[in-house]
Amino acid sequence: MQIFKIIPSTKFAVVINPDHQLEWSQIKSEYPFIADIPIVYGGAQRYYSVKNALETIDSKEHDLIGVHDGVRPFVSYETISNTFQTAERLGNAVPYFDAVNTIRIEKGIVNEALNRAEIKIVQNPQVFRSDIIKDAYKLPYSPVFLDDATIVEKAGYKIQLCHGNYENIKITHPQDIYIGQGLENFLIDLEATSNGYLYSNA
Length: 202
Known about the structure:
202 residues, alpha/beta, Spore Coat Polysaccharide Biosynthesis Protein SpsA, Chain A, 5-stranded mixed sheet, two-stranded parallel sheet
C-alpha cells in the first residue's frame, strides 16, 4: 500500500474477511505504517466488499476513488500515476495490457478465435470519480459484475482505458505464488541496477 502514497492526500481503507482479523493484526505488526488504516469487513462477493467500503468513504463529488486488489502486489508507480491522472481528466480509468495469447471463445459445440489485437487484459487499480462509482453501486448485485468497471459500465458510463504494466499479475492459483516470487526477485534486481522501474514490495 505504501506505493499508493505517491498520490497526494491519499486516504486508505482496507477490506478484509471478518474471519481474518488475526492475520491482519500480524500484517500490521510487520508493517507499522499501515497500523492506523481503517478496515472494512467484506461481503460474500467483491460487489458487497467494495460497496461496504464506499459507504464508509466521506468524499466530495469530484474526489477520486481507486479500488485495488491485494492479489496484485506488483503494480508500478507509473501505472498508479497514469491511472489517477487519466481519471482526473476523464472521470474514470482502467489500466490494461494487450493480450499476447491467442484467445478462443466457446459457444456450445462451436468455438472461434477472437481478434487478439482487440483484446485488452484489464488490471487494477481501477479509479473513478466519487459520484460516478457511488452512483454505479446503487445498482443491485448481479453475477455479471466481474469488476468495478463492469458495474460502472452497466450504470451507463463509458469506461476509459489507460496503459498498465505487464508485471501487474493477479495471484489467483497456488502456483502463481512461485511465479510472483520469481517476479519479485527480478524487479528488485532491476531496481537495483536501473531507474527504469520503480517498485516497492510493501
